[in-house]
Design goal:
alpha/beta; 10 helices; 28% strand; binds nickel (II) ion; 16 strands; single chain; 390 residues
Length: 390
């Protein structure tokens, strides 16, 4: 039944070629000019209808089957991270301070591979495939930018699939989870405005550092005291900036942090508590508190039927024993924006190879993965799409 596996394995040298070229030339979110140019050219050469500039640097390719039918959307992200690569491979990043440390170079290569193989089966496809190459996944809102530019309209996808190479999962395995898979992520900026003054005359000031310190502690009570203990969330203050001199009481403090959650009600509770604590604590000390919100991504929630479809395909290709579910994980992904609007499934494909030292985590300067995962990703997505459009 694993139709596409021999073909995708035969394609592996090209998949690796694409991936290593992209790896050498990584581009940050919304700056994927070279990358999207390569993608657009490749899709055009395959005979797809290509739309560039969707969500700034995103690219959409449409493969029309030979008969009418549903629209399957396949999403691949393209952006790199602001990290200096520590690997010494001959395909290491040539751009100082920028690196494909999450595997999005691999996702883009998989997308081109899927398009290459499905074009050859055009006659068998009833419906169409919408290839969505997304910019700026790393917290910059690339999915929303594409949605605002109409990527989910004409044609409107009936189902959406996406994958992520997963470096804590051994090569040859996959994780497919119906329901909630990944957390919602929100960033906040809190500003305390007091009254600065001489360090020796505190009674004439309102010390923003003291209030900020209380606030950091108070924020830690939200998860422990306000969130239902059977639910999960995490809140972190990652940056606290205030003051300039040892003998000057700071007028302002700025706290930047974020939280992750799964359930919309939990998320709402945390937002309300952050607001109340910031404003209330500041007011109690005679200062003012302001909150600015930056929603990063909603939770990734997979449709049960779509997940069952991917699971069946993955079991056929990888063997049933190599496909499993997972408890929800705290990392976020803006594939969630698409899955909030179109039923679908986002899944993980193992890319770790301990013997070869390919085991460093995502976003690490030594991140690298087993490229055999590229062929497996192509086979699963091709098979999942072809089965739906048969
Ligand atoms: Ni990623």
């Amino acid at each position: 039944m694993a139709d596409f596996l021999p073909e995708s394995q035969a394609l592996l040298p090209r998949l690796i070629g694409w991936r290593r070229d992209l790896h050498r030339h990584p581009e940050l979110g919304f700056q994927e000019v070279r990358t999207s140019g390569i993608v657009a050219r490749a899709l055009h050469e395959l005979g797809l209808e290509v739309i560039s500039g969707v969500g700034r640097t995103g690219v959409v390719g449409i493969l029309e089957g030979s008969r009418p039918g549903p629209t399957v959307m396949l999403r691949f992200d393209m952006d790199a991270l602001p990290i200096t690569e520590a690997n010494q491979t001959n395909y290491a990043s040539e751009v100082p301070g920028v690196m494909h440390a999450c595997g999005h170079d691999g996702h883009t290569a998989i997308g081109l591979g899927v398009a290459t193989l499905l074009v050859q089966r055009r006659q068998e496809l009833a419906g169409r495939v919408k290839f969505v190459f997304q910019p700026a996944e790393e917290g910059l809102g690339g999915a929303l930018a594409m949605i605002h530019d109409g990527v989910l309209e004409s044609p409107k996808p009936d189902i959406a699939f996406g994958l992520h190479l997963w470096n804590t999962l051994p090569i040859g395995r996959a994780i497919v989870q119906p329901g909630t898979l990944m957390a919602a992520s929100d960033k906040f900026l809190l500003r305390i405005r007091g009254r600065g003054g001489h360090g020796a005359l505190p009674h004439e000031t309102v010390d923003a550092v003291v209030i900020g310190a209380q606030l950091v502690n108070a924020l830690q009570t939200i998860v422990s005291r306000n969130v239902d203990p059977t639910q999960t969330a995490v809140l972190t203050v990652g940056r606290f900036q205030a003051g300039q001199a040892y003998n000057v009481i700071a007028e302002e403090a700025e706290l930047v942090g974020g939280f992750r959650s799964f359930h919309p009600a939990v998320r709402q509770t945390i937002i309300e508590r952050v607001e109340a604590l910031t404003k209330g604590l500041a007011a109690a000390f005679g200062a003012t508190g302001e909150v600015e919100w930056f929603p990063i991504a909603p939770a990734v929630v997979n449709d049960a039927e779509a997940a069952a479809h991917i699971e069946a395909v993955a079991r056929d290709i990888l063997g049933a024993e190599n496909v499993s579910g997972t408890a929800p994980i705290m990392v976020s992904e803006d594939m969630a924006e698409f899955l909030n609007r179109v039923p679908g499934c986002f899944f993980f494909i193992g890319s770790m190879n301990e013997e070869r030292g390919l085991k460093h985590p995502h976003h690490n300067p030594r991140f690298d993965f087993d490229e055999n995962a590229l062929a497996l990703g192509v086979a699963i997505l091709c098979e999942a799409t072809a089965r739906l459009l048969r």
